[in-house]
Write a structure and sequence with these properties.
The complex is a heterodimer. By secondary structure, chain A is an alpha+beta fold. In chain A, 57% of the residues lie in helices and 11% in strands. In chain A, strand 2 (49-57) and strand 3 (61-65) form a beta hairpin. Among the domains of chain B are: 1-77, no CATH class; 446-516, Tetratricopeptide repeat domain (Serine Threonine Protein Phosphatase 5, Tetratricopeptide repeat); 789-944, Serine Threonine Protein Phosphatase 5, Tetratricopeptide repeat. Helix content of chain B is 75%, strand content 0%. In chain B, helix 13 (212-219) runs antiparallel to helix 16 (279-292) and helix 16 (279-292) runs parallel beside helix 18. The mean pLDDT of chain B is 90. Classes of the chains: A alpha+beta, B mainly alpha.
């Protein structure tokens, strides 16, 4: 309950001065926003279900226009669960991602996140999927600013330490893409010190090695890259394949053919 | 009958199998004879239930009979009833009727492969095969199953079983194949611990068998302890989702299977949690494997982690730390290795490994000829472990290194200690021998001789005796006591004709006889040295040439070198181009200029562009004289003569056509040029066009030398710089590198260092190394890296002491000793220079200044002043040396409390009016101070009258 209330107050902040209809679509993703129009379903605390077109939201509650034109007000603290219109957009987003049609996928995911953003406290783990995918995609497309914004929007509504760690890594990656070298270096060092060479993610090592390579410090890069490679085992952590590539790059740069061969093998 | 049947069915449903059995028995008893009871459909219904009930109630044999009856009755069915067949097989298993159970399970697996029970049946088949002592079939069965489409956790478990059973059976190769060539589904394998432990076990074994690469692959399959625990817990949790509560739809057999598996894995996990953390041990094994694979970086990282990990057991950390030293050494990071080794000794002072570690580092330094660094380590060893069994050897080795560094006096201290402070051993004898030898190298021949003679008496029957005999002879020769040297050599050669030093002794005998003027006997001695003697044979060949040259037996000389060039029985034939040159030289003097020219043209064609060939420069000089002869005597060089020379001296009996054409072209070019300079110009241009860079550089150096002789220094530099403009450095010979390097150095241009370093790395025997030593030494001196400068100058002194740069170098060497605060060494050097009459002039002046400075360091101001005074008395033309001579002597006079002498010295210096403003200002200031303190210094004697 406390967790709910703290989220609720965050949401209140989000909604402050925001008694407004749903976000307007931009020209590029009109299609998805149209698809996301429709009836919302709300499961209330007394077991009742309410369904209707969403008219407005404010810090008190939502206004719903039900069938036969009835307008109903529902207090926020009564909402247990929400089902959103336009479920097919989520499916489409998944297909677009699988087909690597990233610009379209971005539009679809953006639309989904905008649709759901105001309802974050109520979202189930499954309903958070668009946010997670959106951040990953933005980082893939090297759009760090929006990625950071989305992460920070999402963060207050997550508890799981593994998920929160992943968000931290995404912020770090975004800062890296922004070229914030000092920050990245400090955080990467912290990441390495905190997680050590047996962690699930080797992002810290990856970023530090990247910096060495950028400064043509190939010997240093190679020594550092070898650490996560060396301490890895059959359960492959994230970023290890990338680090192998970096190690190869460094070994080639210092013309250490023997090391190159061992890395290939 | 229906009532009883109903009773039986209800009991069955209620799992009251005893009651069910009773009911079925009653049914059979009371109604067994009725037709309806015998109806196939009826029997089809009740027999399975009856059989199952009997089995559950523990009446396995009766259950077997019932199921068997069923299967027989309905043997015409397309497929046997799945439930009945499986239960039949199960009770056979219970009854230990294994062959039959095997058949039954096998049958099930064949008929129902798609079912979960089919998979379980296959696993049962494998178990039964093991029970029936048919392990190979069992393992094959499991492996086939592992590659099937069955549920992933069952497949992986089967694969794991195959692995374990292979190990149990001692089928290591099979186990390795399963482990390394299977595509393990790690996400779905229930028992990760067993997999990891099998990998660890096999990894250790393959490492012991010397297959370190394979061991590494296996160790990769072993996660660290904490990670294995975590991952196994995840998989156990996943398994429990199936068993607790039992997943809906799972047949009872499957539930039992998974429950058994869960218990097994839970036990494994408990064992892992309670057991020792193997991670450190694993990392050490991996590090050992990496070391054996020469993958030193990886080894370093692991061993460093082990050494510094506080949670690991001490013994493990000690092992890791020691190997870390070994690895650092292997990476040639010897300074780091030494630091790590010292740290090791601090942490583990009682460890037996410490001396080994230090010894290894010392050896590495020594192999790289870094004797000073090696000795630093040996000194640590001797100090830290004075009673160690290897202490005597360390002392001897340190002394040996000092000899290599020409530091003979401290070397002898070590040899003495090694000889006198330990009980008799092989090293005692070696130490005594090397003590004497170091006296020889120190030119203390009489002392050396005395010791060799003592040793000769003491070790008459020792294996070292021949060596002593040889060294005595060499010492007498060095003392110019040729008769005695000959007598001893004769003794040596007659008694020890198969000794490894035989050929050296013969060479020495030849040299002695040359020294005595017994040229014929010397000739005979040198001729007795066969090609198998290697470098001694080559030396002897050229000594014979020298003798023949001296006796002016030119025909013989030409034949001699021709024979050397054309013989096929000499495995080690060096200095070919030199031999060609001398042959040509002899031919010229035999007034066979055409043959000489043919030979030189052939030599250039064969070796002109060969970087390794020596004497090409001398050959070019000889060609210049030949060109004049050509013009004067209107010479020609016929094709036949040229061809004969090529055939004789190329390695092939019939010289290749391309070579013949090249030689002819060269001849034509040479013969038609008006002057030698014309030819030089044309040949250079052609060499450049054809990118024959070695030849181009040689011609350029010859051109540059001719321009220097004409005092055309700007043009000379131009020609030399063209070498670096066009020719890659690695195609220049030593002489070209030296000339180019000097030109670049003179003009403060980059690239000089590269040239000199190339000479040292690529030409270990060239005299031009002297140029490199000198200039690199000067460079180091200028950068105040005096230790490095010393190395270079000392290398000059030991390797090329007779080069024309000797005087400058020895002076610089002395000055370097001064900078390193080694005045005695400096004095020795400067005094040697002063004894050399050919070093008159500036080198002597430098020596005198150096001696003054050395005596200052020794706080001997009077002696210092004496040397300084000699400088400004005898060498007034050496203005830059006058400055320190005057200023230092004046300062020393002040120290000695003789202001008058100081004042006069300053005055004299100022009056010289040299163009050294700073020095003059210093002198004036000092003079002013003196006057302030001693105003009487300006009064003339007449003032007091």
């Amino acid at each position: 309950m406390n967790r709910f209330l703290s989220r609720f107050s965050i949401l209140a902040l989000l909604l402050t001065g925001l008694a407004h209809p749903l976000p307007q679509a931009s020209a590029e993703s009109t299609n998805y926003y149209d698809l996301l129009q429709g009836d919302y379903w709300f499961l209330l605390d007394n077991g009742d279900r309410r369904r209707g077109h969403l008219l407005r939201i404010d810090d008190q509650g939502i206004e719903l226009r039900e069938d036969r034109g009835i307008t109903r007000f529902i207090a926020l603290d009564r909402i247990q669960q929400i089902h959103f219109p336009g479920a097919e957009v989520e499916e489409m987003a998944g297909e677009l991602l699988a087909a690597e049609n990233f610009p379209e996928a971005r539009s679809a995911l953006r639309a989904l996140t905008l649709q759901r953003e105001l309802f974050l406290p109520w979202l189930t783990d499954e309903q958070l999927w668009p946010f997670r995918e959106f951040v990953s995609l933005l980082l893939h497309l090297e759009e760090p600013d929006e990625a950071i914004a989305t992460v920070e929007t999402l963060r207050p509504f997550l508890d799981d330490p593994a998920e929160l760690q992943q968000l931290d890594e995404q912020i770090l990656l975004a800062q890296f893409q922004r070229g914030n070298h000092e920050y990245v270096r400090e955080e990467a060092l912290e990441h390495v010190a905190r997680n050590g060479p047996y962690a699930n993610s080797m992002l810290g090592y990856y970023l530090l090695v990247h910096q060495h390579l950028g400064q043509h410090e190939y010997e240093e890069a190679l020594w550092l890259a070898l650490q996560p490679i060396l301490f890895s085992h059959q359960i492959i952590p994230d970023w290890l394949p990338e680090i192998y590539t970096q190690a190869l790059q460094a070994a080639l740069a210092i013309e250490d053919d023997f090391q190159v061969l061992t890395l290939f093998v | 009958m229906d009532e009883v049947l109903q009773e039986a069915i209800e009991a069955f449903r209620g799992n009251d199998f005893t009651a069910a059995v009773e009911a079925f028995a009653q049914l059979e008893r009371d109604f067994g004879q009725r037709d309806e009871f015998q109806e196939p459909d009826f029997l089809r219904r009740i027999l399975p239930l009856q059989g199952f009930s009997l089995g559950q109630a523990g009446n396995h044999d009766q259950a077997r009979q019932v199921f068997k009856k069923y299967l027989k009755l309905f043997s015409d069915d397309p497929k046997p009833n799945a439930f009945v067949l499986f239960q039949y097989a199960s009770v056979l298993r219970q009854l230990d009727r294994n062959e039959a159970a095997l058949q039954a399970f096998g049958q099930y697996a064949r008929h129902y492969p798609e079912r979960l029970e089919g998979a379980l049946a296959t696993l049962q088949v494998a178990e039964l095969l093991f029970t029936l002592n048919r392990p190979d079939e069992a393992i094959s069965t499991l492996r086939r199953f592992a590659d099937s489409e069955a549920r992933p956790e069952l497949r992986e478990q089967a694969r794991l079983q195959a692995l374990h059973r292979s190990l149990q059976q001692g089928q290591t190769e099979t186990a390795l194949t399963i482990l390394t060539e299977s595509d393990w589904d790690l996400e779905n394998i229930p028992d990760l611990i067993s997999l990891a432990m099998a990998a660890l076990q096999l990894g250790e074994k393959t490492l012991q068998d010397g297959k370190s690469a394979q061991a590494l692959t296996l160790f990769l399959m072993v996660p660290p302890h904490a990670i294995l625990q975590r991952e196994q817990e995840k998989r156990l949790a996943k398994l429990r989702e199936i068993t607790d509560p039992p997943a809906a739809g799972l047949p009872p057999q499957a539930i039992r299977f998974y429950e058994t598996l869960e218990r097994q894995i839970a036990n494994q996990l408990a064992g892992l949690q309670d057991g020792e953390d193997y991670t450190g041990h694993l990392q050490l094994l991996r590090a050992q494997a990496f070391l054996r694979e020469s993958r030193y970086r990886e080894a370093w990282l692991l061993l460093e982690a082990i050494a510094l990990e506080e949670n690991f057991p001490t013994e493990l950390r000690e092992q890791g730390h020691y190997r870390w030293i070994v690895t650092a050494n292997a990476l040639e990071l010897t300074d780091e290795a030494l630091t790590i080794a010292r740290n090791f000794v601090q942490r583990y002072p009682d460890s037996e490994l410490a001396p080994q570690a230090f010894t290894l580092i010392a050896q590495t330094h020594a192999e790289a000829r870094r004797f000073e660094e090696a000795n630093e380590v040996l000194s640590d060893l001797i100090e830290l472990f004075p009673d160690h069994p290897l202490a005597q050897r360390w002392l001897f080795t340190r002394g040996y290194h000092l000899v290599m560094d020409d530091d003979f006096s401290p070397a002898r201290q070590d040899f003495r200690r090694a000889r006198d402070e330990f009980s008799q051993s092989a090293i005692t004898v070696s130490s005594a021998f090397w003590h004497a030898l170091s006296l020889f190298f120190d030119r203390r021949y009489e002392d050396a001789l005395e010791e060799f003679e003592t040793m000769a008496r003491t070790y008459r029957n020792h294996p070292i005796y021949p060596e002593i005999l040889y060294r005595r002879a060499a010492t007498h020769y060095a003392m110019e006591d040729h008769d005695q040297a000959l007598r001893l050599l004769d003794q040596f050669l007659s008694r020890f004709e198969r000794h490894p030093r035989t050929w050296e002794a013969r060479v020495l005998e030849g040299d002695v006889r040359m020294g005595l003027g017994e040229l014929n006997r010397a000739l005979a001695t040198f001729r007795s040295i066969p090609p198998a003697a290697g470098s001694e044979f080559v030396y002897a060949t050229f000594q014979i040439g020298k003798i023949l040259r001296a006796t002016e037996d030119l025909e013989e000389m030409a034949k001699h070198f021709e024979h050397y060039l054309t013989r096929t029985d000499a495995p080690h034939r060096a200095r070919i181009s030199e031999a060609l040159y001398w042959t040509g030289w002899a031919l010229l003097r035999l007034e066979k200029p055409e043959e000489a020219l043919a030979l030189y043209i052939a030599t250039i064609s064969l070796y002109g562009n060969d970087r390794e060939a020596g004497e090409i420069a001398s050959l070019l000089t000889a060609l210049e004289r030949l060109h004049r002869t050509l013009r004067q005597e209107n010479l020609t060089l016929r094709d036949q003569t040229l061809h004969t020379a090529l055939a004789k001296f190329s390695e092939e009996s019939e010289p290749p056509l391309a070579l013949v054409r090249q030689a002819r072209h060269l001849r034509d070019q040479f013969v038609r040029s008006e002057t030698f300079d014309d030819w030089l110009r044309e040949a250079r241009a052609e060499a450049r066009q054809e990118e024959n860079w070695t030849w181009f550089a040689r011609l350029s150096v010859e051109k540059a030398n001719r321009l220097a002789a004409q005092n055309r220094s700007a043009r000379r530099l131009q020609v030399l710089f063209q070498i670096s403009d066009f020719a890659p450095l690695d195609q220049l010979d030593a002489t070209a590198l030296a000339s180019l390097g000097e030109a670049l150095q003179e003009n403060g241009l980059p690239g000089a260092r590269e040239c000199f370093e190339k000479i040292l790395s690529a030409f270990p025997k060239s005299l031009d190394r002297a140029v490199a030593f000198y200039h690199l030494g000067q460079d180091a001196f200028r950068q105040e890296d005096y230790r490095q400068a010393l190395e270079y100058f000392e290398d000059f002194a030991s390797q090329t002491p007779f080069h024309p740069l000797a005087h400058q170098t020895f002076a610089a060497l002395g000055e370097t000793y001064l900078k390193l605060d080694r005045p005695q060494a400096a004095i020795a050097e400067f005094e040697e220079l002063l004894r050399d009459r050919e070093a008159r002039g500036r080198p002597h002046a430098r020596a005198l200044v150096g001696l003054g400075q050395a005596h200052e360091l020794l706080r001997q101001p009077k002696e210092a002043i004496a040397y300084y005074q000699r400088v400004y008395t005898l060498y007034r033309a050496q203005e830059n040396l006058l400055v320190p001579a005057y200023l230092r002597s004046a300062a020393l006079f002040i120290e000695l409390g003789d202001p008058k002498a100081a004042y006069r010295t300053y005055e004299e210096f100022i009056e010289l009016g040299l163009d050294y403003p700073e020095a003059l200002a210093t002198a004036r200031e000092a003079r002013t101070h003196l006057l302030e303190k001693h105003p009487e210094l300006t009064r003339k004697p007449s003032d007091s009258l």
